[in-house]
DNA sequence: CGTTTAATCTAACGAATTTTAGATTATATG
DNA sequence: CATATAATCTAAAATTCGTTAGATTAAACG
């Protein structure tokens, strides 16, 4: 019968996406690409690996149609092939987090519970940011901010943070975010800010998580306010 | 430095879920389990395979904590370890469908566009079903209906449909659904109903898709109305 | 208590993936 | 045009995974 054959074909196609998501390295690359487009060079240094290997994994992601490339001079610029890729990654991580104890334990080791902003909904935070009651700080590299960022967020990359403290309000609470739950940049930012007397906390969510929860993000507005 | 090691560990855990989703057979088993708990025997016959192989794949799914088992007499009863598993499956399929042409083409071959209900939102359908303006028909096996079904749906398994036609209204439009976009039961039901003069159409969505869109489902109410 | 049924476990083979290294392509630059 | 750079392609080694078959466990039944 033809029915079984067709069904096998359908599940095989879905499994192509699953296969792409079955390697830790590819997941890390996808997470980076969910922040915005990047060259192979950037991806290699930010994921801490070997160019050849990164290139091979990017090939696999390309074959699963999760990423796309274009040439720019002698650089190849990769990008996620849609916002749904980041959202898929976020739901995959949520499922992993709720079912795998090992992951929860490792996450607890990674982030300091002290630095975490707790007990406040996305909507409330958004409203407070809109009114200017809190300052939402995007501590990722500026190119990622330009690609997409949380509403009302100001860009201040982690490595410039120390030189730009004067531009920050000392009376308002600061909420820092970065690439998502597995990224440490916002945690480091909070550490630095608190040491200098600011009231600061971090949230887990990045742009993909924000989108996966059905909220909207901005892009390419003025990074300094 | 310890940071890289921890990050590798985190992504490795997420990749465990990805690995579980990387095999067509496992995806099919998960989809069946998303409809409700089933024995290995049932899973084997419904997925059309070999018991030993199905058992091996179930082991992999268990190790990824996506399914759980309990013994019942001499049967092992498997179940998805949460509603989020079905929702993950639904988003995975959505991503596959929007990025892989091959999948869209195969789907077109599978389902007759004629039978498909088009241009109506989930909310509208729900409202019409609530008011009784349409009859929503769950054509899956009754055990799956009991486990969870769309609001206001009536159970009428495909293989009983022919004997129960008297119980159906000939004036109201009938909307049939089954396990999801890859399942043909609702399509066959629509074929049969139309041949007997009923106004019938199918929708793609099953319980998991319904949930993944943020809607609610019912369970264990009276199947006959 | 031996037999049947349902399912798992173990071992083994082949297929597919990951990783590494060397050769190659495409573009920009002096 | 030779050279440097960015990245890919190809091939081989190491590893993992899917599949199959035979042996085994665990519960139910006569």
TrEMBL record, chains A, B:
Residues 130-219 form the Rhodanese domain. Residues 6-100 form the HTH arsR-type domain. Keywords: DNA-binding, Transcription, Transcription regulation. Gene3D superfamilies: Rhodanese-like domain, Winged helix-like DNA-binding domain superfamily/Winged helix DNA-binding domain. GO terms for molecular function: DNA binding; DNA-binding transcription factor activity. InterPro entries: ArsR-like_HTH (IPR011991), HTH_ArsR_DNA-bd_dom (IPR001845), Metal_resp_trans_reg (IPR051011), Rhodanese-like_dom (IPR001763), Rhodanese-like_dom_sf (IPR036873), WH-like_DNA-bd_sf (IPR036388), WH_DNA-bd_sf (IPR036390). It comes from the Bacteria. It holds the Pfam family HTH_5. PANTHER family: ARSENICAL RESISTANCE OPERON REPRESSOR ARSR-RELATED, HTH-TYPE TRANSCRIPTIONAL REGULATOR KMTR. This is ArsR family transcriptional regulator. It comes from Halochromatium salexigens (Chromatium salexigens). The lineage of its organism: Bacteria, Pseudomonadati, Pseudomonadota, Gammaproteobacteria, Chromatiales.
